[in-house]
Amino acid sequence: MRKTTIFLLAMILGIASLTSCLDGKNVQSGYALGVYDADGGYFSQSLFHSTVGPLYAPSMNTYMQSGESFLVYYNCDFDAPENSSAMLQTNNYYTVTISNYSKLPQTTAMSYMSDTSTVMDNEIPLLSGYYNNNGALVNTTSDSYLFLPHTLPQASDVELDWSMCYGNYSGQPTVVGAERFYDLYIRATKTTTKLSKSQNEFQVCYRIGSFLRDAAYNERNQEYFNAETSKFNVRIFWVSSVSNGKLAWSSAVQSMFVASFLDEEGY
């Protein structure tokens, strides 16, 4: 079974967890990004796998569908019996209440490669797409999800269609000198669906488990592979300008541990 690991890479959109000791209570409240997993896997419980760890809220199955991504506001009472040390050792998750939530747009990284020199219909550029400083990667028991906040040059009054594709449809790396890069391309196009209000910031969830597992498996088969230290480079491209029918791309690189995306047998 593949390890379930939570990568808290940065605080998203200024999100921070807050701890309150008012009235002698040990309560933590804050925002978290994550994905609802109704199957639960070896947790034997439906869970919200999030940027603060696995969470369980008794009522979340009434408004969440398995595989959907959300931004939630949670409250966790560490003094509650269900969050005792003994229960945590058994369950490996915290029981919380969710007082507010927002479903996020989600798309799956596709193995086909779009024409990166051609402007798509209704394509718009992004001001941001950088992963290391403003993104988070959440692993459930069966998949991996990359959360990225994107900012537009101008506010949009319609919903956007987000897409992500591999740089190489076979999952092989792009080799530049002595470096190997596993490339992803992000693009956004306008739809005709109106938003309730214009906005220029969007939090988007990208399902990239297959991409990361293929990259990790490729690196595992290299002669230099070390189960404890080997990393691979993910290079993320996004359209940063559209002018006179031409595209300009920006990119950033993030290194990830190979072993994080292999199962206990190294596959």
- Distance between the first and last residues' Cα: 10 Å
Report the principal-axis shape. flat
How many DSSP helices?
2
Alpha-beta content class = mainly beta
Mean pLDDT: 86
Radius of gyration: 20 Å
Order of helices and strands: EEEEEEHEEEEEEEEHEE
Explain what this protein looks like in three dimensions.
With 267 residues, the chain is mostly beta strands. The chain contains two helices and 16 strands. It has helices spanning 85-91, 209-220, and strands at residues 6-7, 18-20, 27-37, 47-50, 53-56, 69-77, 94-95, 97-103, 106-108, 123-124, 136-139, 144-166, 174-176, 179-207, 231-243, 246-257. A hairpin with a 2-residue loop joins strand 15 (231-243) and strand 16. It starts with 5 loop residues before the first strand and ends in a 10-residue tail after the last strand.
Brief descriptors of the model:
single chain; 267 residues; mainly beta; 9-stranded mixed β-sheet; 7-stranded mixed β-sheet
